[in-house]
Amino acid sequence: MTNHGYLPHNGSATIQDFITGTIKAFGMGLDLATFLAVYGAVFDGDLLSYSIGGQVSTLLSGLLGEPQGLSGSHNNGNKLPQVSQFIALYELGQDNGDSTDLDVLTRHRVQRFNVSISQNPYYFSAPFSGLIINSAAYTFVYRFMANKTAENPQGILNGETLKLFYAVSGDYPDFTITPGHERFPDNWYKRNPLDYYTIPYLAADALAMQLQHPQFLSVGGNTGKVNSFVGLDPATLRDGVFNAQNLLEGNNAFCFGLVAALQMAPDILSGLFSDITVALGLLFSAVGNATEGLSCPQLKSIDKGQFSQFPGYTGLKPDAEYRA
Ligand SMILES: *[C@@H]1O[C@H](CO)[C@@H](O)[C@H](O)[C@H]1NC(C)=O
Ligand SMILES: *[C@@H]1O[C@H](CO)[C@@H](O)[C@H](O)[C@H]1NC(C)=O
Ligand SMILES: *[C@@H]1O[C@H](CO)[C@@H](O)[C@H](O)[C@H]1NC(C)=O
Ligand SMILES: *[C@@H]1O[C@H](CO)[C@@H](O)[C@H](O)[C@H]1NC(C)=O
């Protein structure tokens, strides 16, 4: 987006820049664009703005360190795209008639989930990052990058388009990724303004994936060894409001993830701000607005104590929850 002027070229932008830019470039719904922009400014920025990569200095006082930007919050220390993972996704798309659709991305997610549990002793899936952000990371690829046309309003995402968005050059399987060279393809069409990608739309996509593969609903992690995944019972986490059955009803899983983000925020924010009042207020407002179209059940507190058995949580605190 910065390469094409949808965001300032220096990669540092205000909440309003992110909202306007994501709507204009991709057809993100105003509700989703606003929620993500505010969330980014709270956790990765100075409450007004944030950068897409790396630290930027800020005039705001009361920050306990330099804001890290998006690259500091997604996959700490491992933010560069991996060619092997791109190839795995590309191959699944080729096997599907050169079309990387939601089924393909769901298959890719199953593979990545498997690898995480079988290779990462510290794998941890928190309610917000696991139920919402992780889903979005897969659905966004198709919902935003597919080429939408009158004949194919949902869009077609072929391998060439996927390569351009991820700055991949070379012929399969000899791919090279050149970070900074990501671009929109020529003659590429975004979502129709009548069909922008909203929060209820994302919630429905996430639920479809979770119904197909209930492991995507697991909150928990490996306990210090590979293949040691312990899943927590949503009923004990959320005081009986949600359980394994009703988590798959309506927007419950999505609501659970949003509420958990709020519940866990004070821990995280106290590592970022000397006084968390303003940040927390912004977040409450953003989450409140985000739940508006979802008919979420009455919110109660969650039992964070149960997370202490996971080194992937305790090791990363105070910022484990928002790392996707
Ligand atoms: C980035 O560019 C924008 C637009 O030109 C400008 O307003 C902003 O101050 C710049 N930010 C930094 C951190 O340089
Ligand atoms: C990962 O895939 C292997 C091979 O298909 C399978 O045996 C194993 O149960 C899977 N593990 C998880 C955690 O899904
Ligand atoms: C998008 O689809 C249109 C209509 O089929 C086509 O003309 C255009 O080349 C496609 N763009 C890309 C980047 O594939
Ligand atoms: C939530 O919605 C209200 C009413 O539209 C708006 O005034 C407020 O700025 C929104 N909050 C956030 C954080 O976007």
UniProtKB/TrEMBL annotation:
User: Which InterPro entries does the protein's record reference?
Assistant: Chloroperoxidase (IPR000028), Chloroperoxidase-like_sf (IPR036851)
- GO MF term list: metal ion binding; peroxidase activity
Pinpoint the Heme haloperoxidase family profile domain residues: 1-204
Cofactor list: heme b
Annotated coiled-coil positions are none
Heme among the record's keywords? yes
* PROSITE patterns, per the entry: HEME_HALOPEROXIDASE
Cite the entry's keywords alphabetically.
Answer: Heme, Iron, Metal-binding, Oxidoreductase, Peroxidase
Q: Name one Pfam family in it.
A: Peroxidase_2
Similarity comment text for this entry: Belongs to the chloroperoxidase family.
Q: Which PANTHER family does the record match to this protein?
A: HEME HALOPEROXIDASE FAMILY PROFILE DOMAIN-CONTAINING PROTEIN, STERIGMATOCYSTIN BIOSYNTHESIS PEROXIDASE STCC-RELATED
Q: What is this protein called?
A: Uu.00g137950.m01.CDS01
Which species is the source of this protein? Anthostomella pinea
